[in-house]
Write a structure and sequence with these properties.
The two termini are 32 Å apart. A hairpin with a 2-residue loop joins strand 3 and strand 4. Helix 1 packs across helix 4 and helix 4 packs across helix 6. This protein has a 5-stranded mixed sheet with strand order 3-4-2-1-5, with helices on both faces. It has one domain. The longest helix is centred in the N-terminal third of the chain and has 32 residues. It contains 6 helices and 5 strands. The chain is globular, with a radius of gyration of 17 Å.
Length: 163
C-alpha cells in the first residue's frame, strides 16, 4: 500500500510540473534535431549539444549565458561536462519545479525582478538560485568529506540511458 501511495504521489508531482517540463521537452527536441544528444539521468531528461550551446550562451544571465538550465524534469546544457558539473544545482531546480508546478517560471521571474528592484543581482540574489547554490555547496562538501580519506574522487554516478 505504501508503495502504491508513493507511486501515485510521484505521478501527481510529475503532472504538477508538466507545464514547465513541456517547454523543456520542446527545446530538448530542437536540440536533438540539430545534432544534440539526450539521455535520462536519474529520472531527469538531460540534453546537450546541437543548438543548445548557442541558445544558452544568449540567455541574459551573467556573462555569456549559462552552462545549464532546468525546465521541469528537463535539463538543457551546453555540453555533457557542463551537465555533470551542474547536476546538483540543476536537481535543486527540478525539486523547485516539483514544488511550484506551473507557477515556477512566473515565480522565478518575479524573484529576479524583486532582486533587481532592490539593487541586488537578478540572478545570484534570486531566492531560487540561492537555494540551488546552497544545495550545490552542501553536495560538494559532503562529497569532499566522504572521499577525503580515500585520496581519490568518485566517478560521476549516473544511470544514463540514451534516448
Amino acid at each position: 500500500m505504501r508503495r502504491l501511495l508513493r507511486a501515485v504521489l510521484r505521478v501527481l508531482v510529475v503532472a504538477w510540473a508538466s507545464p514547465t517540463t513541456l517547454i523543456g521537452l520542446l527545446l530538448l527536441a530542437v536540440g536533438v534535431a540539430t545534432g544534440g544528444r539526450a539521455a535520462r539521468v536519474r529520472g531527469v531528461l538531460e540534453a546537450h549539444g546541437g543548438w543548445l550551446p548557442w541558445a544558452l550562451a544568449r540567455l541574459p544571465v551573467g556573462r555569456g549565458g549559462v552552462a545549464a538550465v532546468t525546465l521541469g524534469h528537463v535539463v538543457l546544457g551546453t555540453s555533457a561536462e557542463a551537465l555533470a558539473a551542474t547536476r546538483a544545482h540543476e536537481r535543486a531546480h527540478v525539486a523547485q519545479c516539483e514544488r511550484w508546478g506551473p507557477l515556477f517560471l512566473p515565480a522565478y521571474a518575479i524573484a529576479s525582478l524583486w532582486a533587481f528592484v532592490r539593487g541586488a543581482d537578478a540572478y545570484r540574489d534570486n531566492g531560487f538560485e540561492r537555494e540551488a547554490f546552497a544545495v550545490e555547496r552542501d553536495y560538494a562538501a559532503r562529497r569532499d568529506d566522504t572521499w577525503a580519506h580515500a585520496g581519490a574522487r568518485p566517478t560521476p554516478e549516473t544511470t544514463e540511458r540514451r534516448i
